[in-house]
Design brief:
InterPro entries: MctB
Oligomer: single chain
Radius of gyration: 31 Å
Order of helices and strands: HHEHEHHHEEHEHHEHE
Organism: Demequina activiva
Protein name: Copper transport outer membrane protein, MctB
Strand order of the largest sheet: 3-2-1-4-5-6-7
Shape: elongated
Distance between the termini: 105 Å
Number of domains: 2
Keywords: Coiled coil
Pfam family, one: MctB
Length: 322
Amino acid sequence: MKDFRYHVVSLVAVFLALAVGVVLGSGPMRDAFVGGLTEQIDQLEADLATAEDEVAAAQAQTTTGRQYADESAPGLLTGRLLGTSVATVQAMDPSAEDAAGVRDRIVQAGATVNAELTIEPLWTDPSQTAFRSSLASTIAPNVLGVDETTSPSTVLAHALAQALMPGVYPPGTDESDLAGTDFPDPEAAADRSALLMDLLTEAGLVSGVSTDAVQSVAFIAGPGSNDEAVRAETSGAIAAVAAIMAQYAQAVAVASGVDATGDVPSAVLNSPDAAASVATVVEGTGFYGQISVPLALADAAAGAVGHYGPGEGRTLVPPQGG
């Protein structure tokens, strides 16, 4: 009997709970409990609908903007680099899509891309300083414009420039200086350049393909390290290479991503020599900024080295009359 009464009480409690739930979930009691939330829910639903409309409008605007840029690009770029041979040099890990976009716009401007290179992390790795010093000592006898007092990083930068531009001499030298190299005949310039490129690639400092001599160089810089100090140090090394390239090339430009502390454009501007000889395009690896890179190269080749992109002290778009 005790067990039976216990079950009866339990069943009664269950039915009472259900009855209370029905009362609370309907009629005036429901309004008392959730009526205040209804307005909030309605407002949230309205806000969501507005946000969805804004996203759709932004997507449509982006599509239109990209179409406008694509259709405007031929008018801006056609012929600006006609007959120019260009090397693209990637550093600090830009995305493959960004690098390809920059190259496509350079080709659209009439240039031929004769080299697609990457400066590998080994170029700036602090743990490999001794290795780079040893390599610089090995390579220096075939590099013009350097001597025993030249820093290893400068020797390697000159070697890369001479590997890309056979027959072009650094300031203060000429073909008579070839007498001290393994290639004293000026006609062997291509062989000396090939040797330098082989040494740099086999050492792991540079990778990629170089099929012929170039006249201009476009650096495509990625975001680099999340550590600002590391990023700034690496950017400084890349900016130094770009400045040395500018001693040989008709034009040198650096394309980067969004403005960031310690990025390559900042490093260029922090060096008077680099700032005067190397053009920069902030957001030049983005869809719209890619159009500015060949324009910056063309203007630099005409003697107007500029610094472009959004931000204080820059011109958003390079002039189109270089």
